[in-house]
Design brief:
Length: 749
């Protein structure tokens, strides 16, 4: 809809569609569908190739269905078959890595990373989802060297073996006597110092915290800040590696250590609490913090500039800007961009086994280091033969690929002239996305484009809400409440489905699925066709010298609609245009104007002159053409069908939005009274229905109207077949049918 609207606003618009085909979801699907362990399969190049082929085949079928659905919905895009798993896209991704590596913005290091034991890969902070759950808080007694004891509270007793220090808040007077003393870790019996640290919350547990490697981000920060040497006791498979709990999964290890603490008298008590558990955004597995050697992209030193960029981008709606700024503030580590997975862009690195040098090739081609020989005859550093240059097996985080999507979409390979305009700031870029990936897709895109081109990636960020089911719940396969569009498109048509999506919610808000709104859209399509059929019965008049008062009022209302709809489209919010056009077409034009204009158009009583008829013909076609043009981005099929049938052989989508209709100055004053005219019509119809009269039945009554409705009196009288019209207030008893509008009814025979 944005693409169609902006074309009709006069912009040249490039909207590529290509599949975002990297990442963990497809791997998880193939694992579960085929019962394959990718880590085992990938131990040989042949096994890895087979696994990758299964992933690709699945994505091919999904993309085929996806494209068919988008086309059935009338989506306007240029289909690029080379998605994010194509050699073309991956070559660009690798080129950006090589550029940033050479500039020192990417480095390799061994440090604590957020780790998913099930997926067996590192995650970025932005990929962590927190789940609230009930847990146990264990109160554990630590002997203090040289006498005494101190009690700590922890939800992770299995990490006792990784305990490095105990800490309390400097403002907590209860523990001042312990500062600098040493405690003995239960079961493991190694000594740890007792220190003061401002991170400790005195109100949690006993106010004494066990700092271990690693329970959470706080542990990571404190250990890094104090320069402590970590003890890593959880391995990449989520199993314990210390001597006491070796080989046990974390949950089993927790049970065992609790039993041992209880038996040896160290367990004081256990409380139930609610806690927020970090989990993998894809599989839901609880995460661990372990040491791994990964590639990192610097981001901590860019926090200030990223906050400036976040403040300069135009957010639609504005309310979502805060989510990005809050996320930037919360970042506490550089971005680990490498993953121990497979269906993604390979890290283009070889390592010399002789001298240990990390070798990065020149950009320009797509590299597969796990499969291909190194692109050097010998090590450029020490001269070791090619056989001693070993290719990297890791791939990039999917967001490392997705974060350069704007460069690809702007035509970095396909349309260099467009890409040049983009880099120079002469072409505007839009990021449309949901609010759930502000901290990932949006943030990483802004970071990467700034690092690569020293520019802001987007002029506009359009943030939509989440699609909910009819009960207002998020759709998930596990809930069984996922709603597929195809049956509804088949039943009601694409325009009806699009109408629902436009009118379901304001931009930025969650939107509920509503079959009733889709039905409303389908009825609207029928109404438009019926209106068009009626209007097509009369000649189209392109210009006119004189306009009838009712026509002026309706055309002035139309001009107001043009302004409101264009403003909505410019702000990329389709709720307002959909609402405005629907109510104007149905509640004003169809229900009132068309009924009021029929006596004048047919002129069976010869009460109207030729110019008054011509004014009606002009108004009918002007309103219909304008409505079709304004509705085209939302309902492209029915508008194009009517347009080609009645006005041009070429598509309506090649047109621009209409300008306002030139009108005499009195039109604005006449339009102000249009709603009163509508209320009079409603009042008389209600009066007749209550008395079981046909709406076309003559009404032996005098209708008293305020003087300002005098220009519409003839139309009202003809529509309702009212015997007389007077102006002012009646002297005798009357029925008020609208504000200051009265009926004085004669005795009916």
């Amino acid at each position: 809809m944005v693409a169609r609207a902006y074309r009709m606003l006069g912009w040249s618009v490039l909207v590529p569609f290509y599949g975002d085909r990297n990442g963990l979801p497809v791997e998880v699907f193939v694992e579960r569908t085929y019962g394959i362990n990718p880590h085992e399969a990938a131990k040989t190049p042949e096994g890895r190739e087979k696994f990758l082929a299964l992933c690709k085949n699945h994505l091919d079928s999904v993309e085929k269905e996806f494209i068919a659905t988008l086309r059935a919905l009338g989506c306007s895009f240029e289909y690029w078959r080379e998605g994010t798993d194509s050699e073309e896209y991956r070559r660009i991704t690798q080129a950006t890595f090589i550029e940033l590596w050479n500039r020192g913005l990417i480095y390799e290091a061994e440090r604590p990373v957020i780790w998913c034991p099930r997926c067996r890969t590192a995650l970025a902070e932005a990929e962590v989802e927190y789940k609230d759950e009930e847990a146990e808080l264990y109160y554990i007694k630590f002997p203090v060297k040289d006498g005494g004891e101190v009690i700590i509270a922890t939800t992770r007793p299995e990490l006792l073996g990784a305990c490095l220090v105990l800490a309390y808040n400097p403002n907590d007077s209860r523990y001042k006597h312990l500062k600098g003393r040493k405690a003995i870790v239960p079961i493991y019996e190694h000594e740890v110092e007792i220190i003061e640290h401002s991170y400790v919350d005195p109100s949690f547990g006993t106010g004494v915290m066990m700092i271990c490697s690693y329970g959470d981000q706080t542990d990571v920060r404190i250990i890094r800040e104090l320069g402590l040497k970590p003890r890593i006791i959880i391995d990449a498979e989520g199993k314990m590696s210390d001597n006491i709990l070796k080989g046990l999964p974390v949950k089993d290890a927790r049970k065992k250590i609790v039993e041992m603490l209880k038996e040896q008298g160290y367990l004081v008590k256990v409380e139930k609490i609610r806690r927020s558990v970090p989990t993998c955004w894809r599989c839901g597995t609880p995460l661990e913090f372990i040491h791994m050697r990964e590639y990192f992209l610097k981001q901590l030193e860019f926090k200030d500039v990223m906050k400036r960029i976040a403040s300069e981008v135009k957010f639609l709606p504005e309310e979502h800007r805060a989510k990005l700024l809050n996320w930037i503030d919360s970042i506490s580590m550089d971005w680990p961009i490498s993953r121990s997975r497979y269906y993604a862009t390979e890290v283009p690195v070889w390592r010399c086994t002789k001298c240990g040098a990390i070798l990065v090739p020149p950009p320009g081609k797509y590299y597969r280091p796990w499969k291909e020989p190194a692109p050097w005859d010998k090590c450029p550093v020490c001269g070791a033969p090619r056989e001693q240059l070993v290719g990297e097996t890791k791939v990039f985080d999917t967001w490392f690929d997705s974060s350069i999507s704007v460069l690809y979409a702007a035509g970095i390979t396909k349309y260099p002239h467009v890409f040049k305009l983009y880099v120079e700031g002469k072409a505007k870029a839009l990021r449309p996305q949901g609010y759930d990936i502000i901290r990932t897709w949006l943030y990483y895109s802004l970071l990467r484009v700034y690092q690569l081109y020293n520019k802001i990636a987007f002029d506009y960020v359009r943030v939509s809400g989440m699609g909910l089911d009819e009960k207002g719940e998020a759709m998930h396969k596990s809930k069984g409440n996922v709603i597929l569009p195809e049956p509804y498109i088949e039943k009601y048509g694409a325009d009806a489905f699009r109408f629902w999506s436009a009118i379901a919610a304001r931009l930025g808000s969650d939107y509920r699925f509503s079959e009733q709104l889709i039905k409303t859209g389908a009825l609207f399509v029928t109404k438009l066709i019926n209106i068009a059929r009626f209007v097509s019965s009369f000649p189209e008049i392109s210009s006119i010298d004189k306009l009838y008062p009712l026509d002026m009022a309706v055309l002035q209302r139309l001009n107001n609609i043009i302004d409101a709809v264009k403003k909505g489209y410019e702000e990329m919010d389709f709720f307002e245009p959909a609402q405005t056009l629907y109510h104007f077409v149905w509640d004003v034009f169809a229900n009132h104007y068309l009924e009021m204009v029929k006596p004048r158009i047919y002129n069976s009583s010869n009460r109207y002159s030729e110019w008054e008829q011509r004014s009606a013909f002009y108004t009918l076609h002007t309103v219909l053409k304008t409505v079709l043009l304004l509705l085209a981005p939302i309902m492209p099929f029915v508008t194009d069908y009517i347009w080609r049938k009645m006005y041009k052989k070429s598509s309506i989508h090649l047109e621009l939005f209409p300008d306002k209709v030139p009108l005499p100055s009195e039109a604005a004053e006449l339009e102000k009274h249009l709603d009163i005219v509508i209320s009079v019509n409603h009042g008389i119809w209600k009066f007749k229905k209550e008395r079981n009269m046909r709406l076309s039945e003559p009404l032996k009554a005098t209708l008293y109207l305020p003087l300002e409705l005098e220009p519409f009196a003839k139309d009202i009288a003809d529509l309702h077949k009212v015997e007389r019209i007077e102006f002012g207030k009646p002297q005798k008893h009357a029925i008020e049918i609208a504000k200051n509008c009265y009926l004085v009814v004669e005795e009916q025979s």
